[in-house]
Specification:
Strand content: under 5%
Low-confidence stretches: none
Radius of gyration: 18 Å
Structural class: mainly alpha
Helix content: over 70%
Oligomer: single chain
Distance between the termini: 42 Å
Order of helices and strands: HHHHHH
């Protein structure tokens, strides 16, 4: 169904089209994540949560494409996804899965939730607010999935996986903490979660 917006807005149409493409790509990323969990013997609850997260991203892409069209964008929709000819590479062991999860899940998803919450709070367009609220609700769950996965990987993999996770977070901190505000966010949000892994 077509989303109702207050007026056409080409810039918003472009922004939502870009977001829709990112959400569409996240479906593939979470599919790879779910396959890696199965390959490495993850508990069924984690596998189920990964599949649910992928389905969430399908819904997010639909909503974002819908807003792009409502704002006057072209009849945009997802196209074919360029998977590599050699196949989709999976994590070879728990340490590799955990490191990927640090960057793609724990850091990216957690900081993304914070940014999305701020975007939602500042948004005044009713249709956008509804879509942002739905995406935010799901993305919070996706961030929690990343932290649950890290806890499982460390419990199963022991000292070597824990060391790989700590090193990955140290590298991630160096990459993302570029402002005093981000330093405060890292200390207040990320460090307590890291300590719980």
């Amino acid at each position: 169904s077509r989303l109702a917006v207050t007026a056409p807005a080409p810039e918003r149409a472009r922004r939502w089209q870009a977001r829709a493409q990112m959400e569409h790509a996240a479906v593939a990323s979470l599919g790879r994540f779910a396959l890696a969990l199965v390959a490495l013997g993850a508990e069924p609850e984690l596998v189920a949560a990964a599949h649910r997260a992928a389905a969430d991203e399908v819904a997010h892409a639909r909503l974002a494409f819908g807003l792009a069209r409502a704002y006057g964008g072209d009849a945009v929709a997802p196209g074919a996804f360029p998977f590599p000819a050699a196949g989709v590479p999976l994590a070879r062991d728990l340490a590799e899965l955990a490191v990927r999860t640090v960057f793609e899940g724990a850091i990216e998803e957690t900081l993304g939730v914070i940014a999305l919450a701020a975007e939602h709070a500042a948004c005044t367009e009713p249709a956008e607010r509804r879509v942002l609220a739905a995406i935010l609700r799901d993305e919070r769950r996706h961030a929690l999935l990343a932290w649950r996965t890290l806890r499982w990987a460390v419990e199963v993999g022991g000292t070597s996986v824990r060391a790989a996770v700590r090193e990955a977070f140290a590298r991630g901190r160096s990459a993302v903490v570029t402002t005093p505000e981000m330093m405060r966010t890292w200390r207040e949000v990320m460090e307590p979660c890291i300590a719980a892994c």
